[in-house]
Amino acid sequence: MLSIIPKFQKSSSIFAMTALWLANPILGGCEPMTYTFEKADMVLLMETLNQQTWIIESDTQNYEVDLQILESEGEYASHYTFDVISSAHACGTRSFIASADACISDTIMELEGWITIRDAQTQEILVEEKALDGEMYVLGYDLNNADVRLFFAEEGSIDFYSPDGQSFSLQALRWE
Length: 176
Known about the structure:
The chain is of the alpha+beta class. It has helices at 7-27, 39-47, and strands spanning 54-57, 62-80, 105-119, 125-139, 146-152, 156-162, 169-174.
């Protein structure tokens, strides 16, 4: 199917789209950065990982996981992200590929600690106090969308998710 757009309509459409794109940061822009949580709230949420023994049930074996997680000396940062090619600096950082309302805020806290994994039935230690390294990543202005990913040994990782900023659920545990 061939579609033909009159020349005037084509140029006025391009003009209108360009004007809207340029005016968007002025008219719409990003909402002001108003976080509903502080670093101390992230630390309290992180500490809930240490307050229980995590039970992992598989088809063949059940495991108990104990964690000791601490905030590491690494960087704590809150910032806008969404830079794919180049930036117009309109909403924090904006890509020319993404839509004009692509303001994304995230907060990252570096974590470290130790993990111990035991066979739940025999209490045999399978992984003993291996060092952990990772981060808590919060997407948005509220502490209701937090992910924790921690790595241990050469090939191990454990992932948690918090939908409410109060507690975590275990999402995945992998190790060799």
